[in-house]
Amino acid sequence: MTTHLDTSTSASAPAANGDDGAGLLPSPALPKSPASRLRWAAADSWTLTLRTFRHWARQPAALILALLFPVLLVLMFGYLFGGQMQVPGGGNYREFLLPGMFAMSMVFGIETTFAAVSTDAARGVTDRFRSMPIAASAVVVGRSVADMAHSVVALAVMVVCGRLVGWSWHDGLVRAAAAFALLLLLRFALLWVGIYLGLVARGPESLVAIQVLVWPIGFLSNAYASPASMPDWLGAVAEWNPLSATVAAARELFGNPGWGGESFAARHAVELAIAWPVLITAVFLPLAVRRFNRLDR
């Protein structure tokens, strides 16, 4: 759905005085001071964030399905397969599972970001925004703010689901808050992967290819099973999966059963849960910005 924006004025930049001699409204004057440019960019970014919120309000079915799909996976794995799963060191499988599902819901967010960005690019909406007198960063920042807000809601839904099936944190609210922060840090990093791939594909029909990429990465981790239960080579791959670092760190901070181990990845899960997202962001954020700046007008 394409949202009409008035191209005669910016979200926050003041209009220039005078007429252009052709009976058209002049383009707004660009702010000159760094503080004014920052306010201008923030206001334009918020305008485009609200655009996404309005899309979700008008088409709530897709949003609701995206929020409920991870819940379905919790019920399926927790109750349908959970009786056959053994937790290393003992413990309740659903308490083992939920931190993994929290992280998986962050990974699934790549699909939401990719679909939105690629659809706008394919329909020419992104090019239209780039031709408007708005801050160049507003399109990307507005998308990222909206998707991070969506991820906070998705995580809240998953926590409620977890509480209903018997999951809880056991090491205090501060450590639990740190675990949630690491989960959102992973989502922030993967957000730039979704933006970059969406700008490269420039078409929502490539979503299947993204799903083929996301699902193996998600399942080839410690989210559902311990790497110790896998063949040695496969367990090593799963252990060093960036998703596994966030899941292991969340289990440790929540005080939930974990897969343990004496490897470097097992002993430094929290550090890796910070390092991997920082590395992913450092790679894909510049790629996304450069790709956006090089789009054909």
From TrEMBL:
Domain of life: Bacteria
Keyword flag Cell inner membrane: no
Cellular localisation: Cell membrane; Membrane
Membrane topology of this protein: Multi-pass membrane protein
Residue ranges of domain ABC transmembrane type-2 in the record: 61-295
Family in the record: Belongs to the ABC-2 integral membrane protein family.
This protein's name: Transport permease protein
Annotated organism of origin: Streptodolium elevatio
